[in-house]
Design brief:
alpha/beta; Rossmann fold; 2 domains; five-stranded parallel beta sheet; two-stranded antiparallel ribbon; 9 helices
Length: 198
């Protein structure tokens, strides 16, 4: 059985970069956001049920995210209805991933809202990536179209970094790429070493 490591971190903390370091080291990584993208793409499992629920949210055989946002903004019940469709499909996709990689000593579940959704309960250990607030802010504001106001809105919806760190089994600071890579490789060695059975 694989050891399941849940990976999370607030916006701008380096989660995507860290996930890629795990992949580069040969560790299978399941990406929750990528799973949703596949479900919303042509042929995706969420397209037909969402179209049946709200025809305006489907366009050219895909789920139209902008139309979904508009629906959520105008109908208080929309989010719950969407989640009732998407969450079981995402959970199924995660199970299929885990079943494909049972021989791997370590697998990573990259889940943005790991603690907020209770996803940590499906993991043997959790890793929070973190960076100082000034580094986080600078990274986020470099993104195309990002404003200070939008950044603050996103932050307000996420569990504070200090709470995530307190809940995590492991924490990695992502100040520099080289240090992050070294820390990830050291963690992989620690989690998959012969003396580690937990």
């Amino acid at each position: 059985m694989s050891l399941i490591l849940g990976l999370t971190g607030s916006i701008g903390m380096g989660k995507s970069t860290t996930a890629q370091i795990f992949r580069d080291a040969g560790v299978p990584v399941w990406d929750a956001d990528a799973s949703v993208h596949r479900l919303y793409a042509p042929g995706g499992g969420a397209v037909a049920p969402i179209a049946a629920l709200h025809p305006a949210a489907s366009r050219n055989g895909t789920v139209d995210r902008a139309a979904l946002r508009d629906w959520i903004a105008t109908d208080a019940s929309a989010l719950g209805q969407i989640e009732a469709i998407v969450h079981p499909l995402v959970a199924q996709d995660r199970r299929l991933f885990l079943n494909r990689h049972t021989a791997a000593p370590l697998v990573v579940l990259d889940i943005p809202l790991l603690f907020e959704t209770g996803g940590d309960r499906a993991c043997d250990a959790t890793l929070v990536v973190s960076a100082p607030p000034d580094v986080q802010r600078a990274r986020v504001l470099e993104r195309p179209g990002m404003t200070e106001a939008h950044f603050q809105t996103i932050l307000a919806k996420q569990t504070p970094d200090a709470e995530k760190r307190a809940s995590a089994t492991h924490v990695i600071e992502t100040r520099t790429l080289d240090q992050t890579r070294a820390d990830v490789l050291a963690l992989i060695a620690r989690l998959t070493g012969p003396e580690t059975n937990a």
